[in-house]
Amino acid sequence: MLFSVGSLNNINMCPALLDFASRYAYFGDTLLIALSAQCDGRKLQVTDIKTDDINTTLAVGVSSCLLGKRVRFDGGHKHDRYITDVLGKVFTFVPVCPEVETGMGVPRETIDLHGTVEAPHLVGNETGADHTSMMNRYATRRVKQRDLAHTCGFILKSKSPTCGLEKVRLYGSSGRVSYRAMGLFAMALMRRYPSLPLIEERSLYDADTRDNFVTRVFAYNRVQLDLMQRPSVSKIRRFHERERLLLDAHSVKLRRALDKLLASSCDLTPTVFAEMYRGLFMRALAVRSTPAKNARVMRSVLHRIETAIPSKPTRKLAQLIAKYRDGRIGLLEPLSLLRHYVELLEIPELVNQSYLNADDRETWLRFGKYG
Question: Are residues 29 and 87 in the same domain?
Fold first, then answer.
């Protein structure tokens, strides 16, 4: 559950951390459990957060119907070829169909959400049966299971009363229809893993949204592998330095907030500290990168290496960055050449930057040619 500023007041936290959490709270159940643990001036003791079960593969959850499984109310599917034929080359899918997994069967009556956005009810359109309690119990249990706990992202079926992320049809008490709700399973998933990258399948066809989702999936995987397994403050600091350029390409403001968090000397266990860092790190990457932001980051790298390379390549790089900023070429061309010179010069603080050394699979998904 996301917690409010008010819920922090009863937790023994140093003033600097309380101010940080008040400004940037973006955390879920596990951190709330940790921060609510009893403490009497000593370090918080966390027993509810497990760090041994960590992602080792790029597992991504997906609504089963999008994989071509015939689980819809009428026995049909919503097979999305981009998901299976492109993303499926990189991601291992964890299929989920809340309706089938709660025993509603195929075929089944159609269902819709009724009531309010804050407390919707899942109701059968023919029998009027209320499936809310059953679905909420299932969703709360399902999102905690091992396969979903290991995912790095989730692709959800749009408009679904269980899986839809936004603009799901909702019938109010007067019978008036609005499109402001979220599916019950999607709500449980977001409560449990508020930092997890989520997207509806229709949003994958917007290039910028898709690019941001892919970036966040790989970043989430790095966080899980590099930070959440036996976390330490020194490990978090090293991770932050490797991600600095990527963060600046998304949100300088939130990167600076992370700087302040790392500069804090608050008395926290490393696990809680890692949870806080992960929440804000993923929030920063959810901010869209733009050509102007990327150009600024690449110019900053060029400025640091220009004295060590000949003037002709320097001018070439500057021209490519300008062309990219103006929309005349893609990001990959200036970024690849910049990376070439950084590797050639072996500049320690740059050579390990994730911005310049993306996973080959990430590069293929973001910049590859399909069809």
Answer: no
Residue 224 within any structural domain of the chain: no
Residues 92 and 138 in one domain: yes
The whole-chain average pLDDT of the chain stands at 87
Please give the single-letter amino acid code of residue 318: A
Indicate whether 70 and 202 sit together in one domain.
yes
The SS3 assignment for 210 reads helix
pLDDT digits (tens, 9 = 90+) for 214-273: 999 999 999 999 988 889 999 999 999 999 999 999 999 999 999 999 998 567 888 889
Matching residue, tokens 């990959």: 332
Contacts 24+ apart (CB under 8 A), 332-339: 332/363, 332/367, 334/298, 335/294, 335/298, 337/313, 338/298, 338/301, 338/302
Task: Read off the pLDDT of residues 73-129 as tens digits, 9 standing for 90 and up.
Answer: 999 999 999 999 999 999 999 999 999 999 999 999 999 999 999 999 999 999 999
Do residues 303 and 351 share a domain?
A: yes
